[in-house]
């Protein structure tokens, strides 16, 4: 088995094991999440909303590839301009919530990968939804 195929299989195994964990929910598209902090807010983004979030992104080996948690301001972006996994999961979150989110490669960067993220990578994010504009 090639290194690329071995890596892909490790990511698929991770997804299978993660969904067996306690308190993990799976959306129909395959994005999984666990609520870290819930909120009483009813404010949720739509597909075209601009949102501000704090987040940390990791690969399954624990390597952090992106992190804005220590920044003074949460990063704003238009929801329909990010990876499919975020477009799927964020409309389920309320302002003030913090979730651990696991996104299969097919809803992230797939077989192409991107800078610092190998192809076929499952992405793990801790996301706090700060605001919706």
Could you characterize what this model shows?
By secondary structure, the protein is α+β, with helices and mostly antiparallel strands. It has one domain: Roll (Chitinase A, domain 3), CATH 3.10.50.40. It has two helices and seven strands; from the N terminus they run H-E-E-E-E-E-H-E-E. The protein has helices at residues 3-18, 84-89; strands spanning 25-26, 32-37, 50-58, 64-67, 75-78, 98-103, 123-132. Strands 1, 2, 3, 4, 5, 6 and 7 form a seven-stranded antiparallel beta sheet that branches. A hairpin with a 5-residue loop joins strand 3 (50-58) and strand 4. The radius of gyration is 15 Å and the shape is globular. The termini are far apart. The model has no long low-confidence stretch (mean pLDDT 96).
């Amino acid at each position: 088995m090639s290194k690329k195929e071995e890596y892909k299989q490790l990511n698929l195994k991770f997804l299978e094991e993660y969904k067996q964990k306690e308190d993990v929910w799976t959306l129909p598209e395959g994005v999984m999440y666990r609520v870290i902090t819930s909120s009483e807010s009813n404010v949720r983004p739509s597909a075209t909303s601009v949102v501000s979030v704090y987040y940390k992104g990791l690969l399954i080996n624990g390597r952090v590839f992106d992190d804005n948690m220590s920044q003074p301001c949460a990063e704003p972006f238009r929801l329909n301009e990010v990876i499919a996994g975020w477009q799927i999961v964020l409309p389920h979150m309320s302002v003030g919530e913090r979730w651990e989110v696991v996104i299969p490669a097919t809803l992230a960067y797939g077989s192409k990968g991107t800078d610092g993220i190998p192809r076929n990578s499952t992405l793990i994010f801790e996301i706090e939804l700060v605001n919706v504009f």
